[in-house]
Structures are given as C-alpha cells and as structure tokens.
Structure prediction request, 121 residues.
Amino acid sequence: MGRAKELLFLLPRLARLIAGVIGDASVPRSAKIALGAVLLYLASPIDVIPDFIPFVGWLDDVLLVAVVVDGLLSFVDRAVLLRYWPGSPASLDTTAGVARQIARWVPRRLKARIFGGPLAR
Prediction:
C-alpha cells in the first residue's frame, strides 16, 4: 500500500482505535481521560493556533494528537491496541513511529504521568 493511501486511512483507523480503547476496561483511566481531552480539544473551535491559518493552524492539532498517540502506544498493552486497530500490525508500527518522531520533544516522564505508566509514581 502506498504512503498516500496509508495516510488517507490513518484518521479513520485512529478514530476506531480510540473508540475501542476508551471502552476497554483494561485501559487505565488516565489514558481514557487523556483521549477524551484531546477529542474535546480537536472538536472545539478554540485552538492555540486558529485552524483558519493554512497549514500552521493545524500544527497544534497534529502535535497534540502525536503526543497522545505516542503516549497511548507506549503505555497501553500492544495486544489491546491491536484488538481495536483496523489495519495491519505493521501499519500500527508505522503510525507509532511517526507519532514518536513528532512527539519526541515531550519528556517520557510527562507522558508516563499523563497515561499512568510505570514512571507515573
């Protein structure tokens, strides 16, 4: 599958993953809260950088999604994520890699605190 086609399917796949993870009892509540907060921010017409500014307006949304997706993929069991991911395991790995590259400026300790991971204490 080509890169453009993979990107086209990314948003529906992420939406399906998030919907499944939010309803899963084995996922920590802190991860569910982070997912809910990002969904509210994305749905809100108020942004740090207004969306009507071409390309630049989407940067805050992309960064926020990358941080949350990277945290989700780092702190939630892979088997749980694969249960809800509608693509192949390789496409989940590709998504994880892209999110990790975008979100690498956020300290792992902060992500662990948000997602209730092993570093949260």
